[in-house]
Write a structure and sequence with these properties.
The structure is a single chain. By secondary structure, the chain is α/β, with parallel strands linked by helices. The protein has one domain: SGNH hydrolase (Rossmann fold), CATH 3.40.50. Helix content is about 40%, strand content about 20%. Helix 6 packs parallel to helix 8. It is globular. The chain starts with a helix and ends with a helix.
Protein backbone atom coordinates (compact mmCIF):
# COMPACT_ATOMS: atom_id res chain seq x y z
CA UNK A 1 0.00 0.00 0.00
CA UNK A 2 2.77 2.48 0.92
CA UNK A 3 4.49 1.79 -2.42
CA UNK A 4 1.29 2.54 -4.33
CA UNK A 5 0.63 5.67 -2.29
CA UNK A 6 4.10 6.93 -3.09
CA UNK A 7 3.79 6.00 -6.77
CA UNK A 8 0.43 7.74 -7.26
CA UNK A 9 0.72 10.60 -4.76
CA UNK A 10 0.79 13.18 -7.56
CA UNK A 11 -2.07 11.66 -9.57
CA UNK A 12 -5.62 12.93 -9.16
CA UNK A 13 -8.13 10.15 -9.75
CA UNK A 14 -11.81 10.08 -10.50
CA UNK A 15 -12.67 6.73 -8.94
CA UNK A 16 -15.14 4.44 -10.68
CA UNK A 17 -16.25 1.59 -8.42
CA UNK A 18 -17.04 -1.69 -10.20
CA UNK A 19 -18.78 -4.41 -8.19
CA UNK A 20 -21.08 -7.41 -8.49
CA UNK A 21 -20.65 -10.85 -10.02
CA UNK A 22 -19.46 -12.38 -13.28
CA UNK A 23 -21.10 -10.01 -15.78
CA UNK A 24 -19.40 -7.15 -13.91
CA UNK A 25 -16.15 -9.13 -13.90
CA UNK A 26 -16.38 -9.58 -17.65
CA UNK A 27 -16.85 -13.03 -19.16
CA UNK A 28 -17.83 -12.10 -22.70
CA UNK A 29 -16.66 -14.15 -25.67
CA UNK A 30 -16.71 -13.56 -29.40
CA UNK A 31 -15.62 -10.85 -31.79
CA UNK A 32 -15.72 -7.20 -30.80
CA UNK A 33 -13.78 -4.05 -31.51
CA UNK A 34 -10.69 -4.28 -29.32
CA UNK A 35 -10.49 -1.94 -26.36
CA UNK A 36 -7.38 0.18 -26.85
CA UNK A 37 -5.65 0.84 -23.51
CA UNK A 38 -5.52 4.49 -22.46
CA UNK A 39 -2.86 5.70 -20.02
CA UNK A 40 -5.50 7.91 -18.39
CA UNK A 41 -7.59 4.86 -17.43
CA UNK A 42 -6.16 2.60 -14.72
CA UNK A 43 -7.60 -0.32 -12.77
CA UNK A 44 -7.03 -1.38 -9.17
CA UNK A 45 -7.35 -4.96 -7.98
CA UNK A 46 -5.77 -7.17 -5.38
CA UNK A 47 -4.24 -10.65 -5.31
CA UNK A 48 -6.54 -12.10 -2.66
CA UNK A 49 -7.54 -14.71 -5.28
CA UNK A 50 -11.26 -15.13 -4.46
CA UNK A 51 -12.20 -18.80 -4.79
CA UNK A 52 -14.77 -21.25 -3.53
CA UNK A 53 -13.96 -24.08 -1.14
CA UNK A 54 -16.40 -26.93 -0.76
CA UNK A 55 -17.35 -28.38 2.62
CA UNK A 56 -19.76 -31.28 2.30
CA UNK A 57 -22.56 -30.15 -0.01
CA UNK A 58 -21.88 -26.45 0.56
CA UNK A 59 -19.22 -24.08 -0.72
CA UNK A 60 -17.98 -20.79 0.70
CA UNK A 61 -15.99 -17.94 -0.74
CA UNK A 62 -12.43 -17.66 0.54
CA UNK A 63 -9.94 -14.82 0.12
CA UNK A 64 -6.21 -15.25 0.57
CA UNK A 65 -4.83 -12.69 3.04
CA UNK A 66 -2.64 -10.76 3.48
CA UNK A 67 -3.29 -9.50 -0.06
CA UNK A 68 -1.28 -7.07 -2.17
CA UNK A 69 -3.08 -4.33 -4.08
CA UNK A 70 -1.93 -3.51 -7.59
CA UNK A 71 -2.74 -0.81 -10.14
CA UNK A 72 -2.25 -1.09 -13.89
CA UNK A 73 -3.35 0.51 -17.15
CA UNK A 74 -6.79 -0.99 -17.74
CA UNK A 75 -7.11 -3.58 -20.49
CA UNK A 76 -9.45 -6.37 -21.47
CA UNK A 77 -9.25 -9.39 -19.16
CA UNK A 78 -7.95 -12.64 -20.64
CA UNK A 79 -9.34 -16.16 -20.38
CA UNK A 80 -7.59 -19.13 -21.98
CA UNK A 81 -5.79 -16.79 -24.36
CA UNK A 82 -8.96 -15.00 -25.51
CA UNK A 83 -10.07 -11.46 -24.76
CA UNK A 84 -13.20 -10.91 -22.68
CA UNK A 85 -15.26 -7.75 -22.59
CA UNK A 86 -15.74 -5.61 -19.50
CA UNK A 87 -18.45 -2.99 -19.15
CA UNK A 88 -16.27 -0.66 -17.07
CA UNK A 89 -13.84 -0.19 -19.96
CA UNK A 90 -16.33 1.30 -22.41
CA UNK A 91 -17.86 3.30 -19.55
CA UNK A 92 -14.45 4.71 -18.64
CA UNK A 93 -13.55 5.41 -22.27
CA UNK A 94 -16.68 7.55 -22.65
CA UNK A 95 -16.05 9.20 -19.28
CA UNK A 96 -12.49 10.08 -20.31
CA UNK A 97 -13.64 11.58 -23.60
CA UNK A 98 -16.60 13.57 -22.28
CA UNK A 99 -16.16 14.33 -18.56
CA UNK A 100 -12.60 13.82 -17.30
CA UNK A 101 -10.70 16.99 -16.42
CA UNK A 102 -7.36 17.70 -18.15
CA UNK A 103 -5.29 17.18 -15.00
CA UNK A 104 -7.05 14.01 -13.82
CA UNK A 105 -7.08 10.28 -14.51
CA UNK A 106 -9.59 7.47 -13.96
CA UNK A 107 -9.08 4.65 -11.49
CA UNK A 108 -11.48 1.70 -11.78
CA UNK A 109 -11.60 -0.06 -8.42
CA UNK A 110 -12.58 -3.57 -9.44
CA UNK A 111 -14.29 -5.57 -6.70
CA UNK A 112 -16.40 -7.87 -8.89
CA UNK A 113 -16.29 -11.63 -8.26
CA UNK A 114 -18.24 -14.21 -10.26
CA UNK A 115 -20.88 -16.44 -8.69
CA UNK A 116 -21.48 -14.21 -5.67
CA UNK A 117 -24.48 -12.58 -4.04
CA UNK A 118 -26.31 -11.52 -0.93
CA UNK A 119 -27.96 -14.90 -0.32
CA UNK A 120 -24.56 -16.50 0.22
CA UNK A 121 -23.54 -13.68 2.58
CA UNK A 122 -20.86 -12.23 0.31
CA UNK A 123 -22.17 -8.75 -0.56
CA UNK A 124 -24.09 -7.67 2.54
CA UNK A 125 -22.75 -4.60 4.30
CA UNK A 126 -20.72 -6.67 6.76
CA UNK A 127 -19.85 -9.48 4.34
CA UNK A 128 -16.52 -10.50 2.89
CA UNK A 129 -16.69 -8.91 -0.58
CA UNK A 130 -18.29 -5.67 0.53
CA UNK A 131 -15.66 -5.22 3.27
CA UNK A 132 -12.94 -5.95 0.69
CA UNK A 133 -14.42 -3.39 -1.71
CA UNK A 134 -14.65 -0.67 0.95
CA UNK A 135 -11.04 -1.26 1.95
CA UNK A 136 -9.88 -1.01 -1.66
CA UNK A 137 -11.77 2.26 -2.16
CA UNK A 138 -10.31 3.68 1.07
CA UNK A 139 -6.82 2.88 -0.18
CA UNK A 140 -7.53 4.48 -3.56
CA UNK A 141 -8.79 7.66 -1.91
CA UNK A 142 -5.70 7.78 0.28
CA UNK A 143 -3.33 8.06 -2.71
CA UNK A 144 -4.15 11.76 -3.02
CA UNK A 145 -6.44 14.08 -1.06
CA UNK A 146 -8.02 15.25 -4.35
CA UNK A 147 -9.16 11.76 -5.36
CA UNK A 148 -12.96 11.38 -5.45
CA UNK A 149 -15.60 8.71 -6.01
CA UNK A 150 -17.52 9.61 -9.16
CA UNK A 151 -19.47 6.45 -10.09
CA UNK A 152 -20.62 3.11 -8.69
CA UNK A 153 -21.25 0.49 -11.40
CA UNK A 154 -23.13 -2.57 -10.17
CA UNK A 155 -24.10 -5.71 -12.05
CA UNK A 156 -25.38 -8.51 -9.87
CA UNK A 157 -28.50 -10.50 -9.10
CA UNK A 158 -28.32 -13.69 -11.12
CA UNK A 159 -27.03 -15.61 -8.11
CA UNK A 160 -29.79 -14.28 -5.85
CA UNK A 161 -32.42 -15.11 -8.45
CA UNK A 162 -31.73 -18.84 -8.21
CA UNK A 163 -30.58 -19.26 -4.60
CA UNK A 164 -33.23 -20.43 -2.11
CA UNK A 165 -35.54 -21.97 -4.75
CA UNK A 166 -38.35 -22.50 -2.22
CA UNK A 167 -38.75 -18.76 -1.61
CA UNK A 168 -41.82 -17.14 -3.12
CA UNK A 169 -41.52 -14.06 -5.32
CA UNK A 170 -42.48 -11.60 -2.58
CA UNK A 171 -39.86 -12.86 -0.12
CA UNK A 172 -37.17 -12.81 -2.81
CA UNK A 173 -38.09 -9.24 -3.76
CA UNK A 174 -38.23 -7.94 -0.19
CA UNK A 175 -34.98 -9.65 0.82
CA UNK A 176 -33.02 -8.38 -2.18
CA UNK A 177 -34.42 -4.86 -1.75
CA UNK A 178 -33.33 -4.76 1.88
CA UNK A 179 -29.87 -6.17 1.23
CA UNK A 180 -29.03 -3.94 -1.73
CA UNK A 181 -30.38 -0.77 -0.14
CA UNK A 182 -28.53 -1.40 3.13
CA UNK A 183 -25.25 -2.08 1.33
CA UNK A 184 -25.46 1.06 -0.80
CA UNK A 185 -26.62 3.22 2.11
CA UNK A 186 -23.66 2.00 4.15
CA UNK A 187 -21.31 2.82 1.25
CA UNK A 188 -22.71 6.35 1.06
CA UNK A 189 -22.35 6.84 4.81
CA UNK A 190 -18.87 5.31 4.97
CA UNK A 191 -17.52 7.77 2.41
CA UNK A 192 -19.67 10.75 3.38
CA UNK A 193 -21.39 10.99 0.00
CA UNK A 194 -24.43 13.23 -0.28
CA UNK A 195 -25.51 11.26 -3.32
CA UNK A 196 -24.30 8.02 -4.87
CA UNK A 197 -24.08 7.95 -8.70
CA UNK A 198 -25.18 4.32 -8.84
CA UNK A 199 -25.98 2.44 -12.07
CA UNK A 200 -27.18 -1.17 -12.37
CA UNK A 201 -28.44 -3.29 -15.26
CA UNK A 202 -30.57 -6.21 -16.35
CA UNK A 203 -29.66 -9.79 -17.18
CA UNK A 204 -28.83 -11.59 -20.41
CA UNK A 205 -32.24 -12.13 -21.98
CA UNK A 206 -31.76 -15.80 -22.92
CA UNK A 207 -30.98 -16.74 -19.30
CA UNK A 208 -33.59 -14.36 -17.89
CA UNK A 209 -36.43 -15.99 -19.84
CA UNK A 210 -35.55 -19.39 -18.38
CA UNK A 211 -35.71 -18.03 -14.83
CA UNK A 212 -38.26 -15.28 -15.35
CA UNK A 213 -40.34 -15.41 -12.16
CA UNK A 214 -37.40 -15.37 -9.77
CA UNK A 215 -35.51 -12.85 -11.92
CA UNK A 216 -38.47 -10.48 -12.01
CA UNK A 217 -38.48 -10.32 -8.21
CA UNK A 218 -34.78 -9.43 -8.07
CA UNK A 219 -34.90 -6.98 -10.97
CA UNK A 220 -37.89 -5.23 -9.41
CA UNK A 221 -35.82 -4.79 -6.26
CA UNK A 222 -32.85 -3.44 -8.22
CA UNK A 223 -34.96 -0.99 -10.23
CA UNK A 224 -36.72 0.34 -7.13
CA UNK A 225 -33.43 0.71 -5.26
CA UNK A 226 -32.06 2.73 -8.18
CA UNK A 227 -35.10 5.00 -7.91
CA UNK A 228 -34.77 5.41 -4.13
CA UNK A 229 -31.11 6.38 -4.41
CA UNK A 230 -31.65 8.51 -7.54
CA UNK A 231 -29.53 6.09 -9.52
CA UNK A 232 -30.19 4.57 -12.92
CA UNK A 233 -31.10 1.22 -14.43
CA UNK A 234 -29.98 -0.10 -17.83
CA UNK A 235 -32.22 -2.33 -19.94
CA UNK A 236 -30.55 -5.30 -21.63
CA UNK A 237 -33.22 -7.35 -23.42
CA UNK A 238 -31.60 -6.88 -26.84
CA UNK A 239 -28.05 -7.80 -25.81
CA UNK A 240 -26.70 -11.21 -26.83
CA UNK A 241 -25.34 -13.91 -24.54
CA UNK A 242 -22.19 -15.92 -25.22
CA UNK A 243 -24.40 -18.77 -26.38
CA UNK A 244 -26.17 -16.57 -28.91
CA UNK A 245 -22.84 -15.22 -30.14
CA UNK A 246 -20.57 -18.28 -30.22
CA UNK A 247 -22.91 -21.21 -29.49
CA UNK A 248 -21.08 -22.43 -26.39
CA UNK A 249 -24.17 -23.09 -24.23
CA UNK A 250 -23.40 -20.17 -21.89
CA UNK A 251 -26.64 -18.19 -21.77
CA UNK A 252 -25.83 -16.48 -18.44
CA UNK A 253 -23.05 -14.18 -19.59
CA UNK A 254 -23.22 -11.33 -22.05
CA UNK A 255 -20.97 -11.76 -25.07
CA UNK A 256 -17.95 -9.52 -25.53
CA UNK A 257 -19.47 -6.87 -27.78
CA UNK A 258 -22.65 -6.84 -25.64
CA UNK A 259 -20.54 -5.97 -22.59
CA UNK A 260 -19.03 -2.99 -24.38
CA UNK A 261 -22.51 -1.87 -25.41
CA UNK A 262 -23.63 -2.36 -21.81
CA UNK A 263 -20.85 -0.07 -20.57
CA UNK A 264 -21.87 2.59 -23.08
CA UNK A 265 -25.47 2.37 -21.84
CA UNK A 266 -24.29 2.62 -18.25
CA UNK A 267 -22.53 5.82 -19.23
CA UNK A 268 -25.62 7.24 -20.95
CA UNK A 269 -27.72 6.55 -17.86
CA UNK A 270 -24.97 7.94 -15.62
CA UNK A 271 -25.03 11.22 -17.55
CA UNK A 272 -28.79 11.48 -17.06
CA UNK A 273 -28.65 10.98 -13.30
CA UNK A 274 -25.75 13.43 -12.93
CA UNK A 275 -27.61 16.31 -14.57
Amino acid sequence: MDDLKEKFKDEKFDIIVLAGQSNAEGNGKGDACDYIPDKRILMMNDDSMPHFEKTGDKSRLVLNYPARDYVFVAEEPQNQGGKRGNLSLSFARNYAEKILGPDRKILIVNGAVGGTGFARKEWGKDNILYVRLVNMVKKALAFNSENRITAFLWHQGECDSVENPLWDEEKRYLTHSKNLFEMLSDFKNTFGLESLPFVAGGFAEEWYLKNKTACDAVLKAVRETCEKLKGGFVETSDLKSNNQKVGDGDDLHFCRDALFTLGERYFQVYCKIKR
